[in-house]
Every structure is written in structure tokens, then in C-alpha cells.
Amino acid sequence: MKLGRLNHVGVATPSIEASVAFYRDMMGAEVIREPFDLPAQGVKVCFVDTPNAQIELIEPLGDASPIHTFLARNPGGGQHHLCYEVPDIDEARAWFEAKGVRVLGAPRIGAHGTMIFFLHPKDMGGVLTEIMETPRNQH
Amino acid sequence: MKLGRLNHVGVATPSIEASVAFYRDMMGAEVIREPFDLPAQGVKVCFVDTPNAQIELIEPLGDASPIHTFLARNPGGGQHHLCYEVPDIDEARAWFEAKGVRVLGAPRIGAHGTMIFFLHPKDMGGVLTEIMETPRNQH
To answer: Of the residues A56, A59, A85, A130, which is catalytic?
Structure first.
């Protein structure tokens, strides 16, 4: 295992629309991608590009969205997770399982169209961590 | 204002020593810088390099460290702040002040040796945000 690119920082928000205006007008973001729904994860997603990494804005989608709990504790939104890239998702999963880290659910298609899984924050220094396979057409 | 590089993600930890072992042995970090004290901020700091950004591990330094409050709420540590680069720290400060964002304290020397300031998370979508002037010898 070799530490990969920090693909994105997941930032929860009660309103992607308001956050997009914030990143555009306050932070000066020049590339903001089209928002889309990711029903399997219970989130609406919008990527904001910085020159070297992305901010992934996530808003609750549906009543069962895991983001509702986060926003109940942090009504204005806040940092939700970090996502690192790996070359092979199955190898990465086997690595973390062998180390006794709790993998949250089966690997599934993530917001970039490649396989991802999440790791329990209590096993990761308090950081909810997403591991994603590097998109083959990038970098 | 133009959104700059995500220089680092600040991650609070009760023990930089334990976190360094975690990033080296669990996450496969290959470049971990030498830890150092930043008494003006009340933190001990250690940078972990990913291919495109850094993780800034921060541990409380002294009884008045602001990190004690964070660790009281998150005993295992967790995501603390995001840091973006700007070309001119004074321009950036004027920009945010003109927008009514609360600047936390005067600009001061940060962990990379250039001027930094912090912005109130309640004005920044719940994200404690550090703004730092890009080091002149980098990028």
C-alpha cells in the first residue's frame, strides 16, 4: 500500500445550490461541475475543482440519507470525509481488512464512476475515509 | 479572488507519534516531514505528503492550545481545517473582510513559513479555513 492522491475532500451541506454560490462568489472557484444524484449513497453530489484536488459537496438525498445525521450535528455543514485514490480497489480492501480496519459496506460505484468503499473513522484517526480506484482516463 | 491550491488538510490528533506510525504503516505514506513546534498557534505540527497535497497533523502544545477543545469533542482526533493558497495574503484578507467573513486574529507566520490567517467556520459553510500565502520557492 502506497499513499495515493487526495482525490477530494467531502464537505456536507444543507444546500448544494447555496454552497455552489459560496465557492463561486466567495472562494473564486472557476470550475464547478454539474450536480447529480447518487441514490445508492443517499446523496446529491457536486464537485468543485481546486488546481490540485476537488471539494465534493454532498447534500442529503432521500429520508434515509446518512448525511441527515451529520447535518443534525452540524447544521451549517462541514468536513465530512477524505478520499484517497488507489490503483486496485480489491487489493486495497484486502489490505485494510487484513489490518483489522472496518470496511463500511461492499465496494460500490462512486461519484467518479469507479469502485469505492468507506473505512470506519474510529479505525482511521477519527477521519471517515473513502478509498477509490483511480479513474483510468485521468492523471 | 481565485480559488487556489488546497495546500493541506489539517487533522488533529492526540499523538503525532501514533499518527505518523498510522500514516506510514497503514496508509503507506512515503514522505513524512520532521515534526516541529509552532508555539504561537499552540500546536505541534507534522506534514505528511500525498502526491498532490499534504496532511497537516496537529497535536496540542501547551495548556492553552485550541486543539484541546477539539480533542475533548473528538478524542480520537479528526478533520480540523482546510488550507488554501493565495498569491497575496493582504489582498485575501481585505477580500474576506469586505465580504463580512470573520477573520480570526491577525495574519501571522504559519507552518510553511509564510503568512496565514484563519476564517470563522460559521462564515465558511462549517469549515474552519486557513488561508496561506504560497511559498515563493514552491510550485
So the answer is: A130
